[in-house]
Amino acid sequence: MADEVKGEDAFLEEIGPIPYKPDAKPNETMVFKHYNPDELVHGKRMEDWLRFSVCYWHTFRGVGADPFGQPTINRSWEDGTNSVENAKQRLRIAFRFMNLLGIKFWTFHDRDIAPEGATLEETNRNLDELTDLALNLQKEYGIKLLWATCNLFSAAKFANGAASNPDAHVVAYAGAQVKKGLEIAKKLGAENFVFWGGREGYHSILNTQISTELRNMANFFKMVVAYKEKIGFTGQLLIEPKPKEPSKHQYDYDAMTVIGFLKTYELDKHFKLNIEPNHTTLAGHGYEHDVVLASEFDMLGSIDANTGSPDLGWDTDQFPMDVKSCTLIMLAVIKKGGLNPGGLNFDAKVRRESTTVRDMFIAHIGAMDTMARGLKGAIKIIQDGYFEDCLKKRYSSFSSGIGAKISGGTASLEELEDYIKKNGEPTLQTGQQEHYESMLNAYI
């Protein structure tokens, strides 16, 4: 093990910036074959369309543990302690890693970067010390904070939730933690701030007052908005949907559920959504569903670029390596005009069997290449216009006559009845699903 660790450390020291090599052989996995940050595509640099981000928790805090197995990953820069000094060493390594990949953004939970102390005051001092270093590293490497978030789900105190907890004492602690989170987000120039309600939900309806918990959670978010405005933090607030796990049912089930919650409590002007497609599939939807839906309602803020294994049925947080899925995601992003101030955050982890630093690099490189291929395919789809032409034809009946009145909201049921009496039964129109699927395959 000692030799292996030493070799990993030497590997990180010796590697240079990852090159772009479009003619690379399939077994050359430490090069970009498709991602060229400066390439101009559809009016923007590729880097500006994709806005990649490294997530700190999986990449630098993940140890390969799962519910059935012990940790498998031992990084050479870890000294086995939870000290502030070890946290600083880890942070320096992280920025070197991001710099070698050419990634310009990062994300973190508050408890990822700084050890928790015996009191809130000690914990906040640790955060101040680590974020002082992070601010210097951001300036040194030219890397920005895509978003920050608070871990309101791991600690035992949050076993029954945070903002929706039945104990007001716990809700108060969550508020104090978020207050500090917003302050350090402003300090580091975060472009967004994310809320993931990991335990905002229930395991049994028998001991749950749903209306009370939802109301308290909404009031919590209103406090967040008030403090954000008070301190002058200009980042976008985001909520990340997930249907289940760890709770049996979570209040942020999917994109439509979150949008409905935000509109019900008049928070939709202040929040958008951070969509993780792996969570979308856990909700029983297609991979791209929540991204497309949020975009259609102008509520898409950012994307956690990962995937899962639907056959397993749990949150596996794999790197996105499927070109078709990434093409559909990027199609929605392009139609939206881009994700700024959001991005594509690799909320993904190497498999517990992939234990080396080289695996960390290859995972990010492969995912960046896959998203780049998806971007190029999506642009070609838009430029060719075949899909758009087919869709215009399919919905053409709403451009005039009774269809235009239905679409414009001016029709009445009496008018619809009169129309049927004059025109008779409608004829069945083909949906041409196989035609659309065959066209898509031409771009993959």
Automatic annotation (TrEMBL):
This is Xylose isomerase. Keywords: Carbohydrate metabolism, Isomerase, Metal-binding, Xylose metabolism. It comes from Dimorphilus gyrociliatus. It catalyses: alpha-D-xylose = alpha-D-xylulofuranose. PANTHER family: PTHR48408, XYLOSE ISOMERASE. The keyword Kinase does not apply. One of its GO terms (molecular function) is xylose isomerase activity. Its EC number is 5.3.1.5.
